[in-house]
Write a structure and sequence with these properties.
This protein is an alpha/beta fold and 364 residues long. It folds into 2 domains: 6-168, Vaccinia Virus protein VP39 (Rossmann fold); 172-359, Vaccinia Virus protein VP39 (Rossmann fold). 28% of the residues lie in helices and 32% in strands. The chain contains 11 helices and 18 strands. The strands form 4 sheets. Strands 3-2-1-4-5-7-6 form a 7-stranded mixed beta sheet, with helices on both faces. Strand 4, helix 5 (97-108) and strand 5 (111-122) form a beta-alpha-beta unit. Helix 5 (97-108) runs parallel beside helix 6 and helix 7 (201-212) packs parallel to helix 8 (228-234). The longest helix has 14 residues, at 249-262.
Length: 364
């Protein structure tokens, strides 16, 4: 139990009920990176499928359950084939309201006749308001099955008269526009993507700096989100080849939409699903990033530390790492531990843009 999130611990209390139901199929949507799915498989629940938009969770769950045949998908779509509906979908509640509504709508569309949804989430994440939204979407009553560890488990059953169907792009917002490189740009975001429906001030600062001091060659947009940094940077130099990396399938889908809107050639761009540098095989002339400092609801420098400390392994000999960061976070110290040449290229009360060149130990 120590290796389970509080929401998964609550679900484990209902394991006897799951076994008693003997569902022909069980679908887990948006789980955390823990051992809950492994526990279900160990308990004899074999017809189990998982849909996750988080590459870290996807890889972790695959690795922890490799002794089983596990149907797991890394996706932004959260759909199942019409002939492969599930009897029970267990949905982990995300914190972001647009993503919550998207997942709830999608989960209803995965159910077979009289299929059920279990919605599990932390009370502080808005489980009560999510229950009201689920009742509205399903046109049926939502009841509480259990509560513990500051979490609640809710249940509803599909009303066959209600079967919403939305693709990811239908939930997209023409979220923000900006002026860059003497051109007006419009960017689309999907639910669950950082800075949904707006351009955050840190990214705006990094964009201004990139316009003043462009990058060139093979560029990696690390934690790309909606793709705004890499796409705008690509407009400044004709020789740029752009790789856009993110752990989130929703972010990669957003970036794909925006790459097409920007008219960037497919042979000069690439999307990369990766947990930090886990899937990176290239070396780059430049890595640019507005890196996350949260995983789920936790503040953590885990990703940012990996971004900076492992950058020498993924930069060419004269390459650079350029990052925008909150001033209160210790990014400057991390750069100074990693690079011989460190400059603060821009700064205000809240953020600064840091550039690192000439790694202290450049490995080949």
């Amino acid at each position: 139990m120590k290796q389970l999130a509080p929401t998964s611990q609550l679900l484990m209390r209902s394991l006897p009920l799951l076994q008693e139901m003997q569902a022909d199929s069980l679908l887990i949507i948006n789980p955390p990176a823990d051992l809950f799915c492994h526990e279900l498989l160990d308990a004899g629940i074999k017809k189990l499928s998982i849909l996750s938009s988080d590459y870290h969770t996807y890889q972790y769950t695959k690795e922890q359950s490799k002794e089983y045949t596990l149907n797991i998908g890394f996706t932004s779509e959260f759909i199942t084939e019409s002939n492969n509906r599930t009897d029970l979908a267990i949905v982990y509640l995300p914190r972001e309201k647009p993503f919550r509504d998207y997942l709830l709508s999608r989960s209803l569309d995965t159910l077979g006749p009289r299929g059920k949804i279990w919605l599990v989430g932390e009370n502080r994440a808005g489980i009560k308001s999510a229950a009201k939204q689920l009742a509205k979407m399903s046109a049926t009553t939502v009841s509480k099955l259990d509560s513990a560890r500051h979490c609640s488990l809710l249940e509803t059953q599909l009303n066959n008269a209600v079967r919403p169907a939305h693709d990811a792009q239908s939930q997209a917002q023409p979220a923000f526009s900006l002026r860059f490189n003497q051109k007006d740009w419009s960017f689309t975001t999907l639910p669950g993507v950082f800075s949904y429906a707006k351009l955050d001030p840190a990214s705006r600062m990094l964009l201004q700096n990139l316009e003043e001091l462009p990058v060139s060659g093979h560029v990696l947009d690390f934690a790309c989100g909606s793709g705004v940094l890499g796409i705008c940077a690509s407009s400044l130099r004709s020789n740029i080849r752009l790789d856009s990396l993110d752990v989130s399938a929703m972010a990669l889908a957003s970036t794909e939409i925006n790459l097409k809107q920007a008219g960037l050639a497919a042979d000069t761009t690439r999307l990369l699903a990766s947990d930090a540098y886990s899937e990176v095989k290239q070396r780059y002339n430049a890595i640019i990033s507005n890196p996350p400092f949260h995983r789920d609801s936790r503040q953590t420098l885990e990703v940012s530390e990996a971004l900076i400390h492992q950058a020498p392994l993924h930069l060419k000999a004269k390459g650079e790492l350029r990052v925008v960061a909150n001033r209160h976070l210790p990014y400057l110290a991390l750069f100074e531990q990693t690079f011989r040449q460190v400059k603060v290229l821009a700064s205000d009360r809240y953020f600064h843009v840091i550039q690192g060149k000439h790694p202290l130990s450049h490995r080949t």
